[in-house]
Amino acid sequence: xxxRDRIAAALGDGCRFAGLYASGERVRVVLAAPxxxxxxxxxxxxxxxxxxxxxxxxxxxWDEREAADLYGMRFDGHEPLRPLVEHDLDLQSWTVPVRGxxxxxxxxxxxxxxxxxxxxxxxxVVGDRILHVDARLFYKHRGxxxxxxxxxxxxxxxxxxxxxxxxxxxxSVAYAHACEEVLGLRPSAELARVRTILLELERAWSHLNDxxxxxxGAGVAAGNTFFAALTERARRLxxxxxxxxxxxxxxxxGGSALVLAASAVASARDELASIAADSKSGxxxxxxxxxxxxxxxxxxxxxxxxxxxLGAVGPxxxxxxxxxxxxTHSVRLAYDGFVPVAPRRVAGDVQARLEQRAVELLQTFxxxxxxxxxxxxxxxxxxxxxxxxxxxxVVESPRGATLCAVEHAGERIERVHLRTGSYANWPxxxxxAAGNLLPDFPLINKSFELCYxxxxx
Amino acid sequence: MLTLLRxxxxxxxDVALQAPARGRSLAVRHVDAGSCNxxxxxxxxxxGPYEDIQRFGFGIVASPRHADVLLVTGTVTTRMxxxxxxxxxxxxxxxxxxxxxxxxxxxxxxxxxSEVVGPVESLLPVELRIPGCPPSPATxxxxxxxxxxxxxx
Lengths: 457, 153
Description:
Number of helices of chain A: 16
Shape of chain A: globular
Number of strands of chain A: 14
Low-confidence stretches of chain A: none
Mean pLDDT of chain A: 95
Shape of chain B: globular
Number of helices of chain B: 4
Structural class of chain B: alpha/beta
Distance between the termini of chain A: 34 Å
Strand content of chain B: 15-25%
Number of strands of chain B: 7
Strand order of the largest sheet of chain A: 1-2-3
Strand content of chain A: 15-25%
Radius of gyration of chain B: 16 Å
Oligomer: heterodimer
Helix content of chain B: 25-40%
Largest sheet of chain B: 5 strands, parallel
């Protein structure tokens, strides 16, 4: 079977495209099966050329464009292969042409008006109506993957973690899973529990922050301030538990040094119960605030078919009715019996994405309450398997499934690739904005609340 | 909504914010030159209800044209060099540059050399350095107060 046939067969078996990256002269594609298992397909490029798969999996568009810009791959059939990371090019080369009467451009960024990461949006509009958006990110491209090459497996974790502060635990755990697969290790039950607690603590502050952001986008200062206060409390709790407000360095390869006595765990549980109660009461107020709720429906809607085709992940996908959550099949974590939750109205719009976070947040507090029922001790990964040349890890971040691939030569990293939930969702956000009013874009953007840093790396 | 506002009043009492000092005013323009998003999240909460830097007269403004201070986060990437310089050049004088966070200060930067220009001070005169990875909202607030008092004196 040819490379394209193998990809087509995997997709036909119900696999989800989970990432594509260049490694030396080869292209590797990761596919996630419905049962959560991962399939890796590799193909050698000839003279740097390889057939595209973008017609089979539209979600691969950014991956191929990145591999072309950073690794010189050429994807036959991907026409036009627009630059993504490369910036020194004229407008025509990286934007989709829009022609017709009264169509004009609005350029926004890379520097935005508030405290926002850097990135550029090129809107094509008629009046206030958005016809098309080209997102030009990678202003913050730091070359983290290349910088990690040649480092030891333990050292390289810092590069993956620091791709993004908001997804630091997710990135570290996905990386640790990939490394442990390479080394023939699997987490002990205690290690799985510690990592799951850290991941849910990250989701808690992140979802609180994202609800605050949507309130800000809709001009509801009271809601924004209320949930910003809860975000601050969640970060203070992180610091109390791990010594860092963003839980940096708390998830390591091969084990966990985090020790929490019964009293520390009990007080964390109390604080989480109090934050959960306040967030419930705040959400109740928002739910019955008619002018706020009127602002949210039917804006930035993504249909289930489009969400699937474009490879949407995380709350954005689930709000569109794609009930996928990597936690369902996370055998290396402590999510036994996990079932994804859904909002009452699965409309794929700003309202659904907001409510998705609100209901997931309650689930996160319940998970944390159950997981923090006893003290936490130091934990180690245990032997389990023969080890592999390439390790893969998929973890559900607050923004969706994040893939980390690790290739090694002995103790050294040869190639590491990180494809975060934000990376997967940026093209979906651009698609969601089309057809809406330009002044609604900030609200649509906040309803996705994607990181620029972990897309840019 | 009334409940939200009542809760906020309670929060104010619980946190026991100090009374604002009189006579301070600094308009701050933030530029992310290549951060990991940690400094942004902490800066955003510095304007939140717990730290509330607005009570000291500090505001995040939408344009460098209105700004006294350019607050720069991250190591400067090759792609953010020009936008950063453009923002600085758009500011009226007198103007001050603040480097926020360890990356902006070239401490423990994780990056490929070819993708970054260097720390903020390799491009702009830096008045104030706020270390931390990332600096907490309280640290940011205290540093900005110190900067303002230094300027005034």
